[in-house]
Design goal:
The protein is an alpha+beta fold. The protein folds into three domains: about 1-290, no CATH class; about 300-405, no CATH class; about 415-474, Arc Repressor Mutant, subunit A (Orthogonal Bundle), CATH 1.10.10.410. The chain is about 40% helix and about 20% strand. It has 16 helices and 16 strands. It has helices at about 50-65, 160-175, 215-235, 240-245, 285-290, 300-310, 315-320, 325-335, 340-355, 365-380, 385-395, 400-405, 415-430, 430-440, 445-455, 460-474; strands spanning about 1-15, 70, 70-75, 75-80, 90, 100-105, 115-125, 130-135, 135-140, 145-155, 190-200, 210-215, 245-250, 255-265, 275, 280. The strands form four sheets. It has a nine-stranded mixed sheet. Strands 5-4-15 form a three-stranded antiparallel sheet, with no helix packed on it. A two-stranded antiparallel ribbon has the order 3-16. A hairpin with a 5-residue loop joins strand 6 and strand 7. The protein is elongated, with a radius of gyration of 30 Å. The structure holds adenosine-5'-diphosphate (ADP), magnesium ion and zinc ion (ZN). Zinc ion binds near residues 24, 36, 37 and 40.
């Protein structure tokens, strides 16, 4: 029996307006190479100057994962040559990172939770992008010098479930803190997965393989499964020593294999040395105080939602996993929806309808509207079933809820007079059934309810129908 051991390096792009060491904008999708200057192009004589906003965001992150925040940290040079890095080195923090020794709690499906240690989080500059077209390649340096916070976990994760939970929690936290957009597709939350195996019960760590830059949770899961299989096969075939060595591999989504990319360089290959062009990075008292009081985090919000709105742990977890969704839910409550009806409309009905690029943030149905719809269910104006029709309608219309309800003729009849009349008609038309019911055939009650609902074309309030039938048949 084998155990999977995983450690993650997550590169989150910090959402500062300007780059790490110059004042070029960090905007995404601009014309190639427009957001560059002598500093990020590494022209001779240009010097880097630290963007302080990066330290502010680092304090927030350090606090959120209960870490040591180094009030003085340093930059180092990591030398390597790639066409997308005009400096031929990366400025990073090797010896004294801004954040160290943190932890992050994950809640497993079986109800237990686990603490994953975070070794460090350090500031570093991103590279540009190589764009390969046919037989040549182009370089876009718009991204060169964008600030990254690289968050490095200890090898505390024991498989796919742990890994995905950790990543989702981390993703959620950086978004709650508003320090990163963490958009995986756009590359602002990039994950390197270090994978090894070991016989269960063994305490020692075996050779790790690093799989680079996998850009979705689904692919991360797949890549781990495939890499673990490769390592176990090698072990069982007696060729572990020969085939599994420390290297960087890439996940090939089409072929569903991991492929060797390069041998893993040791620290010596990088010729690390203290960055001579930058001062030490100091977080002064004022900056520290300004950032240390962070907003409510996902776990705290979840706990509050369970208490305040009596939501189930599960529902509260779903809603609080994304800040936008939590805000959306609270806005529904503010608009008058009850928590119980609101949570169902949001997590089942709305989420089920958000497809093809739609999400909570760009939902065609705003929180105030959905909250009001919840209210209309709560106050008996429409049934749960009718609410679904209203929702379908609203997906491409921004009409007022009450107008839509009128227009679609979905209003429930709670008017007792009208319902009484229908009930009377139905009882009169079915004297034999009434006789049988009174003779003890209780099941027929459902028949009468059904007939009345049918007569009202589904618009009668089931509650009122039940009450009237009960009294008439008594
Ligand atoms: P490097 O810069 O060489 O990638 P780092 O120290 O930045 O090294 O990252 C090492 C990562 O690999 C960490 O996330 C760590 O938890 C993980 N790791 C170390 N040893 C193992 C192992 N045997 N199996 C799985 N992951 C490991
Ligand atoms: Mg690394
Ligand atoms: Zn620049």
């Amino acid at each position: 029996m084998f155990e999977t051991v995983i450690g993650l390096e997550v590169h989150t792009q910090l959402n500062t307006k300007t780059k790490l060491f110059c004042s070029c904008p960090t905007s995404f999708n601009d014309t190639q190479n427009v957001n560059t200057c002598p500093t990020c192009l590494a022209l001779p004589g240009a010097l880097p100057v630290l963007n302080k906003e990066v330290l502010e965001k680092s304090v927030k992150f350090g606090k959120a994962v209960d870490a040591t925040i180094n009030r003085t940290s340093y930059f180092d040079r990591k030398s390597y040559f790639y066409p997308d890095s005009p400096t031929a080195y990366q400025i990073t923090q090797l010896y004294t990172p801004v954040v160290e020794h943190g932890k992050l709690k994950i809640d497993l499906e079986d109800g237990t939770s686990k603490e994953i240690r975070i070794n460090r989080a350090h500031i570093e500059a991103d590279a540009g992008k190589n764009i390969h077209e046919g037989s040549y390649s182009k370089v876009d340096l718009n991204r060169a010098g964008t600030p990254l916070l690289e968050i490095v976990s200890e090898p505390d994760l024991r498989g796919v479930e742990d890994t995905i939970l950790y990543l989702k929690k981390l993703h959620s936290i950086v978004r709650y803190l508003d320090i990163s957009d963490a958009n995986m597709q756009e590359g602002s939350f990039r994950v390197d997965v270090n994978v090894s195996i070991r016989p269960k019960g063994d305490e020692k760590l075996y050779t790790r393989v690093e799989i680079k830059n996998i850009n979705s949770f689904k692919f991360i899961q797949k890549a781990i499964e495939i890499e673990v299989k490769r390592q176990i096969n090698a072990w069982e075939d007696g060729v572990y020593e020969e085939e599994i060595f420390q290297e960087t591999r890439l996940f090939d989504q089409t072929a569903q294999v991991t492929k060797s990319m390069r041998g893993k360089e040791g620290a010596a290959d990088y010729r690390y040395f203290p960055e001579p062009d930058l001062l030490k990075a100091v977080i002064d008292d004022e900056m520290y105080e300004r950032n240390i009081n962070i907003p409510e985090l996902p776990d705290q919000k979840k706990e509050r939602f369970v208490k305040e709105f009596k939501l189930s742990e599960y529902n509260a977890g779903v809603i609080c996993s994304e800040l936008e969704m939590a805000h959306y839910f609270e806005a529904m409550i503010k608009a008058g929806g009850s928590p119980k009806v609101s949570v169902n409309l949001l997590t089942v009905e709305l989420l089920g309808r958000l497809k093809g690029g739609l999400n909570i943030s760009n939902s065609p149905i705003k929180a105030e509207t959905l909250g009001k719809l919840a209210l209309r269910i709560d106050d008996g104006t429409i049934s749960n079933k009718a609410a679904k029709d209203v929702l379908d309608f609203l997906m491409d219309s921004d009409k007022d809820i009450d107008e839509v309800i009128d227009e679609l003729g979905l209003k429930q009849v709670s008017d007792t007079g009208a319902i009484e009349k229908m009930v009377d008609d139905i009882l009169a038309a079915n004297p034999d059934k009434v006789e049988q019911y009174k003779g003890g055939k209780d099941k027929l009650f459902g028949f009468f309810v059904g007939q009345t609902m049918k007569a009202s074309k589904g618009s009668a309030s089931p509650q009122v129908v039940n009450e009237i039938l009960k009294s008439k048949l008594a």
